[in-house]
Amino acid sequence: MGYPQYEENFEDLDSNSVEGLIRLSRWIDNWPANRARDREAALWGRVAKVGEEGGEVIEAMIAATGQNPRKSVPDGDGLEFVQKELLDVAVTALGAIVHLREEQGVFGADPITMLHEHIAKVVTRAQEKDPNFPAPLVVQT
Ligand SMILES: [Mg+2]
């Protein structure tokens, strides 16, 4: 059985990352074992996966800092692996947003723009909370 085809045109998306996230999300959704799940179970699965990736970050931190005497500390900078796992959390969360939006009938949602807007809101709240919040960074050209 093939994957469903979607009709939207991605020329309007300004980021290959967005297109990639949408394709990854649909690939996961259309995996046979996932396609067999009901909608709520599928959403729970996508949200739970974010937590699973968070667990991998913790596992990487434990390894990088040598906390487990039964395991050796990874060669090189174990924090690079921590960073990779943090990015896995971000990608998994953004993919879950694509899944959620498509479940709501919104196709071609742009989770990168949503992330930018969310960061701006968080910064605004932080600035309002703390007068010592760092000043805007000025890019010198
Ligand atoms: Mg991971």
Tags for this model:
binds magnesium ion, 63% helix, 141 residues, mainly alpha, globular
In short:
By secondary structure, the protein is mainly alpha-helical.
What can you tell me about this protein's structure?
The model has no long low-confidence stretch (mean pLDDT 90). Helix 1 packs across helix 4. The longest helix is centred in the middle third of the chain and has 26 residues. This protein has one domain. It is an all-alpha fold and 141 residues long. 63% of the residues lie in helices and 0% in strands. It has 5 helices and no strands. The structure holds magnesium ion.
List the helices and strands and how they pair.
Elements: H1 16-29, H2 32-35, H3 39-64, H4 78-103, H5 111-129
Helix pairs in contact: 1-4, 3-4
The structure holds magnesium ion.
Residues 53, 56, 85, 88 line the site of magnesium ion.
